[in-house]
Amino acid sequence: MTPRVVLDAMGGDLAPQEIVAGALMAAGGLDVDLTLVGRAAAITAELKGTTGLRSIHVVDAPDVIEMDEHATDSVRAKPDASINVGLRMVKSGAADAFVTAGNTGATMAAALLTLGRVRGIGRPALATVFPTQEDGQTIFLDVGANVTCRPEHYREFALMGHFYAQEVLGIARPKIKLAARVKIRKNGNVPAHEATGMILLGNGSVLVSGAVDHAWRQGVVLKLRSDGSLDRSFGDRGVSYLGAFQPAAIVRDQCGRVDAAGRYPSGGIGESGHAGLRILSRSGRNASGRVPRLPFGKSQVSNLTSITAAGGNGIVAAGWKDRVSTGKDVALVRLRAPGCR
Q1: CA atoms of 115 and 229, how far apart (whole Å)
Q2: Nearest-angstrom CA–CA distance, 32 and 230
Q3: Which of 70, 128, 149, 210 has the fewest CB atoms within 10 Å of its CB?
Q4: Where in the chain are the domains?
Q5: Torsion of Cα atoms, 187 then 190 then 196 then 197, to 10°
Q6: Tell me, what DSSP letter sits at residue 230?
Q7: Given a cut of 50, is residue 284 above it in pLDDT?
Q8: Are residues 205 and 221 in contact, defined by beta-carbon separation less than 8 angstroms?
Q9: How confident is the model at residue 217, as a pLDDT?
């Protein structure tokens, strides 16, 4: 079945001229049924003189939501705007997808009001796909729909990205990583902390690691169930504190154990801070206790920022090491885990 795509002809720079030009290119090179939605007279004028347009249709939408208009207010005030009309076509089954280069906030608001949310998802996300150096693809979300998020929202983003990568990009076992340092706040007994690492466990729950905003920036790992609530069987009622250690990344190794890598703050242990690795246990249920230092010499003190599982039950960690307090060098460490038991 040919995909039916609605294209907002009034959204983006130099609309509708450039949007119509792009639609003509798509009609000539893609197997897609295109509908241009917007001010019909302006669209028709741009199509005048072209040929072979059996796969392009025009639907009139007299109103336009401009780029500087308030998202929700404009969506409610202009029901016949091209964004609203196009999304209603998707809602009614007349189209399979809606594409716009227009007001992003208005598009998100209209999608929520018209299409609603997927069951179990409380906070939608914007996503984009990037190519990788290995000729693959990675999906990155959220890229701007949300200003503040709670831990359960990151779980939702991970789940949505996971299934998009599987179903659309064809990646059988997608890897999930937290790409940015962001503030997380959780109601209850979990203080505000900076989330620096996250992995999706096999049962749909998520482990999130970070540093608590205490004077010594205490490290914390918390476990969330699939519904976003704290798994209170993990650590101390869902939360595990790792003292002054600041976890920067977490990963599940070849044995199924969960490892956390990070650093001690300057002055905590040693003059410039030490890297650490914590085996949280095979099940990931017990993360309490102190985090041991990695077996480095004093000249190889490293502040780990990333960690990944490798073959042979090993772990590769990367980070920074101080160079006589005059600069920093990159340090790469390979650790061999004990045999699986």
Answers
A1: 26
A2: 45
A3: 128
A4: 4-114, 182-336
A5: -100
A6: B
A7: no
A8: no
A9: 61
Both tokens assigned to 7? 């294209």
Structure-block tokens of residue 62 = 């007299």
Q: What is the CATH architecture assignment of 182-336?
A: 6 Propeller (2.120)
The answer to whether 128 and 139 are in contact (CB under 8 A) is yes
Bridge partner residues of 329 (DSSP): 321
Residue type, 81: A
The reply to whether 4-114 and 182-336 are identical in fold is: no
State pLDDT tens for residues 187-213: 444 555 677 777 777 666 777 777 776
Residue that is written with structure tokens 């307090």 in the block: 325
Looking at residue 312, its amino acid is G
Q: At 297, is the pLDDT very low, low, confident or very high (cuts 50, 70, 90)?
A: very low
State the fold for domain 4-114. Rossmann fold (3.40.50)
CA distance 195 to 181: 6
Length of the chain counted residue by residue: 341
> Would residue 307 be called left, alpha or beta, if left means φ above 0 and alpha means ψ between -120 and 50 degrees?
beta
How is residue 59 written in tokens? 């639907």
For 65, residues 6+ apart whose C-beta sits below 8 A from its C-beta are 74, 75, 78, 81, 82, 83, 102, 103, 106
Query: Is 149:182 a contact under the CB 8 Å cutoff?
Result: yes
Rounded distance between C-alpha atoms, residue 197 and residue 218, angstroms:
15
Model pLDDT, residue 296: 39
Q: How confident is the model at residue 277 (pLDDT cuts 50, 70, 90)?
A: low
Cβ 3 vs Cβ 30: under 8 Å: no
Per DSSP, the three-state class of 162 is helix
* Mean pLDDT score of the chain: 76
